[in-house]
Specification:
259 residues, alpha/beta, TIM Barrel, eight-stranded parallel beta barrel, 8 strands, 41% helix, 15% strand, binds 2-phosphoglycolic acid
Length: 259
Amino acid sequence: MKVRKPLVAGNWKMNGDIASNEQLFTALRAAPERVPAAQVEVVVCPPYPYLGQAAAWLGDTGVAWGAQDVSAHPNGAHTGEVSASMLADLGCRWVVIGHSERRQAGETDEQVAAKLARCAAHEIGVIACVGETLAEREAGATETVLARQLDAIASTLLAGGASAAPGRFVLAYEPVWAIGTGRTASPDTAQAAHRFLRERLAVRGYRESGYVRILYGGSVKANNAAALFAMPDVDGGLIGGASLVADEFLDICRAAALA
Ligand code: PGA
């Protein structure tokens, strides 16, 4: 078993409805039969309107639920946005920030840092995503991009708060070219990026870098999960498409538990 307890998070993106969610929640409630809960932390992130449904179905299970995004602002005139305090009110324990789909829609490094600060103020754990595009990788700029994205949140992280504790601050390496494309990073490619990120955290003065879970995300499936999770610095996964298929998702969680 690894020093760091693996975490697998399902990012449902803008998918689902009440009926299909119910099927997934029913399967997740039965997860303990297939997934040794003591050995993996499982989180699912449905769209905002279904967080109440997630709370109702999962509240008494070991499966946690979270949001896919949060406002960078504490409150005020931000039509359509949802604040960290509102999520905390609902009992939300996790938020994904900096997903590449949000970055592509215009989210900046500074906004990701502000979101981390908002979550920290309300003791919400964060899954902070970083990752390079295909053009950046091909230009040999992967480490430059990862360093820039990580450095942007490093000072907020060092400022502390509950979301900065190693159990509550989770990084996700998600190469943009691997998301939803079926083109998974090889275990060695993922490991190299994860190692770089962990070392960078240490260089930036984050003393508990050895305890931070770094998830891999990008076309993780049941048939490639075990090889990825076997790498020493890969501590679980952020799962998109495969998190919408109960059997597939539970098999991925199981692979993380057994890694
Ligand atoms: P994918 O998405 O598993 O469908 O590639 C991962 C993600 O975007 O978090």
